[in-house]
Amino acid sequence: MGSKQLFRYAVIRYVPDHVRDEATNLGIVLSPAGGGASTMKMVSHETLRCLCKEGRGQAEMLEMVASNIAAECRKGVPMERMVKKYIQRIRLSESLPTMAADPVEEVEDLFKRFVSIKDVVSNKGSVLRPIRNHMWNAIKDEGGRKNVEVAGRRGTSVFDFAYTNGSARLIHFVDLASRDGAKSVRLFDWYASDVIDGGRYKAGAFVPVLSYEGGNSPADEGLAASVGEAAMILERYDVRHLDTKRWRDGIRGILA
Fold this sequence. Notes:
Elements: E1 5-14, E2 24-32, E3 39-42, H1 45-51, H2 56-75, H3 79-85, E4 90-92, E5 96-100, H4 103-114, H5 128-139, E6 145-151, E7 156-164, E8 168-175, H6 181-197, E9 206-212, H7 221-233, E10 240-243, H8 247-255
Helix pairs in contact: 1-2, 6-7
């Protein structure tokens, strides 16, 4: 373990009512005291939507703010500037000093200390639930792992499965036909890019599985456009397409 260095951290907080000023802690931003990219860990957008009681529009606005914070962390925007900027529904607390050797481990420790809410995992009713279950049954006796946490340069990301067949692969399913399909594609790219920047995996190790009815040839024009956009965003990865009406054959192809 390397020697400890000085960092500053701030707690990301959600304040739904300015009058009552009651906050829920959502995450942590950790910045090197001397400047540079920050490390961030935050509850999922799905959890943020569940916390927001004011409807879809307000929830999407909060998600956009959270994404902006993540982007500024990557760019190395000074923490004090972010503290002054974010003062509305999502805020950053005043920053405090801490000593750490590994910023990723320190963010995890701070997250466990300050964030008490748990991420919501919404597989109920999802077309992907039986598909993921089938995948797990196919790989669990062959050294496969599920809900795999992988440390990146700025944080830790979770992918559906890790599986080795000649080379290590990280497999993640995206329901492209869902309301949040396009957003899930962009989030996957963000998480995978962070892991790649950390130097542990190359782009070819990531297998995003775009799942939707019709496979490579969706009948719906809007869905076809979404497929094309997703393919452009994910072009450097080992993208697979899974027809949700014939997914058993598709799973065999992914594992081949």
